[in-house]
Design a protein that fits this description.
There is one protein chain. By secondary structure, this protein is mostly helical. The chain has a domain at 63-118. Helices cover 58% and strands 0% of the residues. The chain is built from three helices and no strands. It has helices at residues 20-37, 63-85, 91-120. It is elongated and about 90 Å long. The N and C termini lie far apart (98 Å). This is DUF3077 domain-containing protein. Residues 1-11 have a biased composition (Pro residues). Residues 1-24 are annotated as: Disordered. Pfam families: DUF6124 (PF19619). It comes from Pseudomonas tehranensis.
Amino acid sequence: MFKVTPNPPGSPGTAADKSSKSKKLDEAAERALDYYLNPKPTDEAPGQASTAQLFMVAPNIDTETLLANASEDLLSISAIAADLADDVDGSRRSVILAISRMADGVHLLVERAMDRLEVQAPG
């Protein structure tokens, strides 16, 4: 048996059915929702991509300066850990001393890298 069915009605959300006034209202609602639910940082340049980094190293710093600062930071970490190891006992002391020794080892690696840079530098 053949049943006659009318064409389904057009969906009310199509662009052809909307008047210009309702389009403006939809755009305003979209802007309002974006403003409150998806805010943009105010200090970000409009064409610049946002990064997830809180801190970053200045891109124009030379390798020797970076290694020198890393070396000083490693010495500080080692000194803090060694000082803290004097105040604790047991397995905590072993962990803190291990951190201090690891920082000392990495410090030696950084110092070797700095020495190689000085050898390669023309002059």
